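Field: COMPLEX_INPUT
Field: COMPONENT_COUNT = two
Field: RESIDUE_TOTAL = 228
Field: MODE = joint
Values follow.
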Amino acid sequence: GAGVSQSPSNKVTEKGKDVELRCDPISGHTALYWYRQSLGQGLEFLIYFQGNSAPDKSGLPSDRFSAERTGGSVSTLTIQRTQQEDSAVYLCASSPTDGYSTLHFGNGTRLTVT
Amino acid sequence: RKEVEQDPGPFNVPEGATVAFNCTYSNSASQSFFWYRQDCRKEPKLLMSVYSSGNEDGRFTAQLNRASQYISLLIRDSKLSDSATYLCVVNSPLSSGNTGKLIFGQGTTLQVKP
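Field: COMPLEX_OUTPUT
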């Protein structure tokens, strides 16, 4: 079946512009995560949605970052007034239930802020 | 202190060698433990879950030591195709009892040489 889909796969933007990244999780998966990975670094947790619970936003690095998940399915991560340090690969993952389940990752969005 | 810590390596080993990676975690209430594998410029994929009694999958053995709060991954008879970054993943449970988010270590790089 279809896996986790992220779009765009690559995004180049100018410093100060806003960007929106999209994630389509696997159908029926209730948990959805956003992570960020800079070159040569590990995955940095950003935000976690689990069913109808309030999202865990504890990893968002600043108030320029926000995320939504509409109807328990598609999620968008928005970065306002992008900075060069926001350049990274943004990975979305979904899992069937909760923190005990396997994460299925999308291919990521490579964001470059010039 | 980071919630999940790994030695980044790199570990350079010859084919056929046995290599072991450790990972420490800070939250004693964590209950879910995994090893993921990430190939260069690819998304992470589940290698194996880690169970309390330890578990084996072919050449790979995972162990959990709750008292010392670390998990380990042993790879026997290393193959060239084992070259990758190995990511330790631990859940960060909430006081409410929710299993919470999954936190990744920064990864340990393994390079298997002919």
